[in-house]
Amino acid sequence: MNLILASGSPRRAMLLESLGLRFTTVEPNAAESDDKRLPPDELVKLNSRAKAQSVAGQSPGDALILGADTLVYIDGEVLGKPRDIDEAREMLLALSGNRHTVYTGLTLIHMDSGTVLTDFERTDVTFRRLTASDIELYLQAVRPLDRAGAYTVEGAGSLLVERFDGCYYNVLGLPVVKLDKMLRTVGANLFQLSSKDSADR
Predict the structure, then answer these.
(1) Number of domains in the chain
(2) Residue 69 annotated to the active site
(3) pLDDT, tens digit, 9 for 90 and up, residues 129-185
(4) Considering the entire predicted model, what is its pTM?
(5) Which domain holds residue 22?
(6) Which of 7, 23, 33, 43 could form a disulfide with 38 if both were Cys (CB 3.0 to 4.6 A apart)?
(7) Which member of 69, 86, 112, 119 is catalytic?
């Protein structure tokens, strides 16, 4: 199966690589919606679908295209990627000591059959209470501008979170169990793809 990741996220690519999958990456050419009238689950599904569809037009007929979109939701507000360091700082202050929800939308387009599947995963995340110094040191240690909510749970980001309720990999931007369940609808699964690709190496 010719898997195409419609994403520029190095973390999503890393997760697929950790499963032993072979795939190509194509940067999607799709404007991300921030329509605040939509609930967060619908918004991430909309954006994941737009990303996958933007790549479909230039993909071969045997391709399976994966689009994904992640956002952070707290107190009725969507936190996407911060525009600058000042907004990143504001986001981290809002998250400090509080519980929020991470949503990731996934879209699979099976070019051969024309099947389009879209779903989402959610994970509740509780931040530890951060001091102003903690936040400044964190901002120096990572690049927060390409991350929803201005944070990651890798490296120094692992110090931010007290508790996860739900899929950890969803917070990294690719809920792999949800992806596996979606793949089974088109006659594939991650166990099969991982073991086959590993055996071919």
Answers:
(1) 1
(2) yes
(3) 999 999 999 999 988 898 889 999 988 999 999 999 999 999 999 999 999 999 999
(4) 0.91
(5) 2-200
(6) 43
(7) 69
